[in-house]
Amino acid sequence: MGSKKINTLGYVYDIDSKVDAIDPNDNLFLKLSQDYSVEDKNFSFIKTNAMLRRHKMVFREEVGISASFEFGHLAQVEGMSREVDRFKSFTSQMRGFKSGGIGPRDRHSTNQDPLGGQYFAVARLESDFPLMIPEEYNVRGAIFLDAGSVWGLDDRGGTTGANQPGGVVDDKFHLRSTLGAGLLWGTPIGPLRFDFTKAIKKLSYDKPESFNFSISTKF
Fold first, then answer.
1. Based on the structure, what is the number of domains in the chain?
2. How far apart are CA 205 and CA 197, in angstroms?
3. What is the largest CA-CA distance in the chain?
4. CA 44, CA 85: separation in Å to the nearest integer?
5. What is the pTM of this model?
6. Is the pLDDT confidence value at 14 over 60?
7. What is d(CA 51, CA 66) in angstroms, rounded to the nearest whole number?
């Protein structure tokens, strides 16, 4: 089949209040990135990612409250978008669903593979708090709510998703949401996280999950 070369030019802009914090208990993080990629004169796209996150300690600096919003857009300049370039959800982005567990899907294929989408958006709300466990164990609890979606495919033939595998695919915006509770454990190898989740809004072909383990990063 041979190989094809894609040239990409982009930038990343971010603001992190932890670098020069006036109030260490109130952190703000903003990140924006864009990439322009071109393969030949008949194929090029612009991919945009944005994230806004804020974390604040309240109630005598014992309880943390955080809110974040993440958005992505793949603008196809020339040619049809490719699955490898589209957005697919990850468990760390949309908790309560497996990686690629939401968004347009080829339901006619054997594995019902996710096709990805040209748009991605998710909002996350979370509160972490101390438990009735001695401080030396460095264990905290958390509750959270996530809501978001992956949607949008090329529609240049007049039918939604007409050029995708299996024929017509529903690529409309469908909101998904999950509730969850977690345990946060600070260990010598890094912060460990155990999340228990329940999808409260989903589609029949989504791939939810009720438990996830991860090594997280501190805000």
1. 1
2. 18
3. 63
4. 11
5. 0.88
6. yes
7. 13
* Residues 31-77: tens digit of each pLDDT: 999 999 999 888 999 999 999 999 999 999 999 999 999 999 999 99
Residues 6+ apart with CB under 8 A from 150: 87, 88, 89, 102, 103, 104, 116, 117, 119, 120
Q: Please give the Cα distance from 74 to 120 (Å, whole number).
A: 9
Establish if 1 belongs to a structural domain.
Answer: no
- Whole-angstrom Cα Rg for the chain: 20
In the chain, how many H helices and how many E strands?
A: 0, 9
CATH number at residue 38: 2.40.160.50
pLDDT class for 161, splitting at 50, 70, 90? very low
Q: In what order do the strands lie in the sheet with 190-201?
A: 7-16, 26-40, 43-58, 63-78, 119-130, 139-151, 176-187, 190-201, 211-215
114 lies in which domain range?
7-215
